[in-house]
Amino acid sequence: MLTKMASGKLVFSFIITLMLIFLLPPSHVVSHSNPGDIKDSSSINPQKVNLSVYYEALCPSCANFIVKSLGRVFNDDLINIINLRMVPWGNAHFNKTDSTVICQNGLDECVLNTIQACAINVWHDVNKYYALIYCIEFLAIEGRHSNWQSCFSSLGLPEKPILDCYNNGTGAKLQALYGYETAHLSPPQTFVPWVVVDSKQLGNDYEKFTTYICNAYKSNVIPNACKSLPPNNVSSSKEENPIHPVCYRGEAKNMTSLAPIKRILVHFG
Ligand SMILES: *[C@@H]1O[C@H](CO)[C@@H](O)[C@H](O)[C@H]1NC(C)=O
Ligand SMILES: *[C@@H]1O[C@H](CO)[C@@H](O)[C@H](O)[C@H]1NC(C)=O
Ligand SMILES: *[C@@H]1O[C@H](CO)[C@@H](O)[C@H](O)[C@H]1NC(C)=O
Ligand SMILES: *[C@@H]1O[C@H](CO)[C@@H](O)[C@H](O)[C@H]1NC(C)=O
Ligand SMILES: *[C@@H]1O[C@H](CO)[C@@H](O)[C@H](O)[C@H]1NC(C)=O
C-alpha cells in the first residue's frame, strides 16, 4: 500500500502540503533594518522555533498534553515565536498484507487521527485546527470522544470540508504521509507524545517544551512566556523511566483494523 501510494500524485500532494505548512506562514522572518549597524543581539533575525508534536488521538497522555500543557501556548505569546506542527499518527502502523491502518487504541482512534489530519490540512490556520484538536482531546479525557462532531458547532467551524477530506480519500493519503514521516524520525520515536523542538527530540522531557523553545529562540526581544520560566534546567535522562505517563509503541492491547477508512463514519452515525 505504502509503495503504491508513493506515486506521483502522492508526492505532489506531499509537496503541496509541505508548501502550505512551511512556506506560506512565516510572518516574523523579516527583521526591521538596524540603522547604525550596532553589533548587538538586535541584529539577529528572530527565527521561529519549530515545535513538532507526534501523537495519537486517544492516548490519554497525548490528550492531557494537548489540553493541559500545549494549549497554554495560545494564552501567552509563545505561539507567536513557534511553528507548531501537529502530526496525528503516533503508534499506528500499516498492515502491509491488506493495506489497512492499525491504530493503537482501536478504530475510533484511526478516525480521529484522520479527522485531525484533515483539519490541519484543510484549514492550515493553527488557531482553527488546534481548537478542533483541543476540543476532541478534551472530550477524550472525559471519555466522550464519540461526541467529536459536536466540536464543529461548539467552535463555529465548518464540518463539511473536513468530512469531505475524510470521505474522498484525502484523509487516508494524509495519514500515509504522517505515518511515513513518523516512521522515519531520527532518533526513532518510541512513545507518544513525542515532542521535537527544531531537530532535538525531548524524550521524557517533553513537558518542558517551553524551556527548549526559549533556549532555541534567538532574538533580542524575549517573549513574556520565556521571562517567567524557572531556571533553565533540562533533565539529562532520556527515554528510560519517563517522569510523565506516555503511550509506548507496541503496547496496544486491542488493535482494530480499519479498511477501508470510509466505512467508519457509519460507526458514529
Ligand atoms: C494483516 O492483514 C491480514 C490480511 O487481512 C490479516 O490476516 C492479519 O491478521 C493482519 N495483521 C494484523 C497485525 O492485524
Ligand atoms: C476532498 O475534499 C477536500 C476538502 O473539501 C478538498 O480540498 C479536496 O480537493 C477533495 N479531493 C478530492 C479528490 O475530491
Ligand atoms: C524549521 O522547519 C523548516 C521547515 O521544515 C526548516 O526549513 C527550518 O530550517 C527549521 N528551523 C530550524 C531552526 O530547524
Ligand atoms: C537547576 O540545576 C542546578 C544545577 O544543575 C541546580 O543547582 C538547581 O537546583 C536546579 N534548579 C531547579 C529548579 O531544579
Ligand atoms: C476490544 O474492543 C472492543 C470494541 O471496542 C471491545 O468490545 C472489547 O471488549 C475489547 N477487548 C479487549 C480485550 O479489551
UniProtKB/TrEMBL annotation:
<feature type="signal peptide">
    <location>
        <begin position="1"/>
        <end position="31"/>
    </location>
</feature>
<keyword id="KW-0732">Signal</keyword>
<dbReference type="GO" id="GO:0016671">
    <property type="term" value="F:oxidoreductase activity, acting on a sulfur group of donors, disulfide as acceptor"/>
</dbReference>
<keyword id="KW-0325">Glycoprotein</keyword>
<protein>
    <recommendedName>
        <fullName>Gamma-interferon-inducible lysosomal thiol reductase</fullName>
    </recommendedName>
</protein>
<dbReference type="Pfam" id="PF03227">
    <property type="entry name" value="GILT"/>
</dbReference>
<dbReference type="InterPro" id="IPR004911">
    <property type="entry name" value="Interferon-induced_GILT"/>
</dbReference>
<comment type="similarity">
    <text>Belongs to the GILT family.</text>
</comment>
